[in-house]
Write a structure and sequence with these properties.
The chain is an alpha+beta fold and about 300 residues long. The chain is built from twelve helices and eight strands. It folds into two domains: about 180 residues, Jelly Rolls (Sandwich); about 110 residues, Homeodomain-like (Arc Repressor Mutant, subunit A, Orthogonal Bundle), CATH 1.10.10.60. The chain is about 50% helix and about 15% strand. A five-stranded antiparallel sheet has the order 2-7-4-5-8, with helices on both faces. Strands 1-3-6 form a three-stranded mixed sheet.
Length: about 300
């Protein structure tokens, strides 16, 4: 049986469906105490949606909360066109706030130029942000400031002020996500270890020239993460993109083979998937300051 999807196309429609009071055609702040949606439905927002979940009856395991996370509130970020369902019992949380805003609201604003920097809009629901008491207070402050501005009579300043307040909220959420990466340090080490195993198997196969490293999306799926969350986690933990991290592991393998002395640089270049020994030598020298042959001599 195909699940019914409630497709909410506009902010005004969102207000009607969820019991909000329309005060602006392109943005709304809605309390999630009243919605009566069918438990058979999921909801699809055709605009940006930010949910702050305060449901005390929900432990938010469906949003990825674990014992090492804060539990005062949870935030979920949805990009336009994303389908959401809280859990098998509820389409939406039973308590919290929903900030809805249409992409057109951001046109010509500073936020529009770098909205893509807030990669957590591409995270899965299970990769939600879990807030401490202080963080929740900060998030609530900016949600209330946004709501207050939305209730102001619309004028030439409205778009700029609302977008700036949303931007401030998102900047704080970026900070809170970085804090969450820190408090999940042990879990993240396990994930990086699994990534190392995946990359290591590709290197040890001797078929990198044919197959290359697994695509980033495939590696993310192997550790049960969205590509966006995986990319941000890897960069936070290692300071590298996936491509850069693979290149460092490739270089480390080359150093090991050079030290062992059983293969020529040409053979190593072929085994590790470099296009040619010239490319191998160029990259090796760029990253280490020495040619492969010089490195080998220095280790003997």
């Amino acid at each position: 049986m195909t699940e019914e999807i409630l497709d909410i196309k506009t902010v005004n429609e969102c207000n009607r469906c969820l019991g909000g009071s329309p005060v602006h055609p392109q943005a709304a702040m809605i309390r999630l105490d009243n919605p009566e949606l069918s438990v058979e439905s999921s909801v699809k927002f055709e605009f940006y949606a930010i949910m702050l979940i305060e449901d005390s009856k929900c432990d938010c395991r469906c949003c990825g909360r674990r014992h090492y996370d804060f539990s005062d509130a949870t935030m979920v970020f949805l990009k336009p066109g994303e389908i959401f369902r809280m859990d098998t019992e509820n389409t939406l949380p039973r308590r919290g706030r929903l900030l809805a805003f249409h992409p057109d609201l951001l046109c010509t604003t500073a936020l529009d130029r770098h909205m893509s920097d807030y990669t957590f809009f591409s995270y899965r629901k299970e990769e939600a942000l879990h807030l401490s008491t202080k963080e929740k207070e900060i998030a609530m402050k900016y949600l209330e400031d946004i709501d207050e501005e939305l209730h102001h009579d619309i004028d030439t300043h409205s778009r700029t002020l609302v977008s700036r307040l949303i931007e401030l909220l998102l900047d704080y959420c970026s900070r809170f996500y970085e804090r969450q990466f820190i408090t999940r340090e042990d879990k993240n080490r396990v994930i990086i270890g699994k990534v190392d195993e995946i990359i290591g198997r590709s290197i040890s196969s001797g078929r990198l020239a044919e197959t290359g490293f697994p695509p980033e999306e495939a590696c993310a799926a192997s550790v049960n993460l969205s590509p966006a969350y995986f990319s941000d986690l890897l960069r936070f933990e290692t300071g590298k993109t996936y491509r850069e991290y693979c290149a460092l592991k490739q270089l480390s393998a080359a150093k090991k083979l050079l030290t062992e002395g059983e293969m020529t640089p040409t053979e190593i270049a072929f085994r590790l998937g470099y296009e040619s020994v010239r490319q191998f030598s160029f990259i090796f020298r760029k990253l280490t300051g020495r040619l492969p042959s010089e490195y080998r001599c220095s280790r003997n």
